[in-house]
Amino acid sequence: MTKKYWLIKSEPSAFSIEDLKKSKNQTTFWDGVRNYQARNFLRDEMKNGDQVLFYHSNTEPNAVVGVCEVVKEGYADHTQFDPENKHFFPSADPQNPTWFMVDVKFVKEFKKPVTLQDIKENSKLQNMRLIKRGNRLSVMPVEKVVFDEIVKMGSK
DNA sequence: GCCAACGTTGGC
DNA sequence: GCCAACGTTGGC
């Protein structure tokens, strides 16, 4: 089983890489994803040990800020059943959950965030879904070469 | 704060 | 099954 590589987005005002670092065991559950394509990745494809780029969206600057890894594979996102939670999903069935999440653990923070602009300017990264028009996926696969290149950029 | 792009919902 | 309306994402 070969390791896979991913990118997950978060608005730092909601949950930043600093928050991840401060979490218990530097680990958190990645809840609140309400997109079916992203759900399928969380439920079916993200495996323990997979490496994940942590991206800050809707901020200044938008950037990949570090790396985390999957430490618990897809399981039911409990917030779908909680009427008090803003991610409550009334039609969700506890016997057959609609939404899933994984746990991710902090690996490292980049010395230098790799900004969206940096990515757009790097010819090796032009195939990334992140920079495709109208992209709104909050969980997406990335190729190993792309992952390695971004880590290299962030480590300088 | 604006707005384009997109996914989902619901009426028909 | 179509598609208009709506809500959300996310760059700028």
Secondary structure: elements and pairs:
Elements: E1 5-10, H1 17-22, E2 27-29, H2 36-45, E3 51-56, E4 63-76, E5 100-115, H3 116-121, E6 139-141, H4 144-155
Parallel strand pairs: 1-3
Antiparallel strand pairs: 1-6, 2-5, 3-4, 4-5
The structure holds a DNA duplex (12 and 12 nucleotides).
The portion of residues assigned to helices is 10-25%
Strand order of the largest sheet: 2-5-4-3-1-6
Dominant shape = globular
What separation lies between the terminal Cα atoms?
30 Å
- Class derived from helix and strand content: alpha+beta
What is the mean pLDDT? 94
In N-to-C order, the SSE pattern is: EHEHEEEHEH
Describe the oligomeric state of these chains in a short phrase.
Answer: single chain
Count of DSSP E strands? 6
If you compute it from the alpha carbons, what radius of gyration comes out, rounded to the nearest whole angstrom? Answer: 15 Å
Poorly predicted regions: none
What count of helical segments does DSSP give?
4
Q: In what range is the share of β-strand residues? A: 25-35%
Largest sheet: 6 strands, mixed
Quick overview:
The protein is α+β, with helices and mostly antiparallel strands. Helix content is 22%, strand content 31%.
Structure description:
This protein is α+β, with helices and mostly antiparallel strands and 156 residues long. It is 22% helix and 31% strand. The chain has helices at residues 17-22, 36-45, 116-121, 144-155, and strands spanning 5-10, 27-29, 51-56, 63-76, 100-115, 139-141. Strands 2-5-4-3-1-6 form a 6-stranded mixed sheet. Strand 3 (51-56) and strand 4 form a beta hairpin. The longest helix has 12 residues, at 144-155. The radius of gyration is 15 Å and the shape is globular. The two termini are 30 Å apart. The model has no long low-confidence stretch (mean pLDDT 94). The chain binds a DNA duplex (12 and 12 nucleotides) through residues 9, 11, 34-37, 57-58, 62, 116, 133-136, 138.
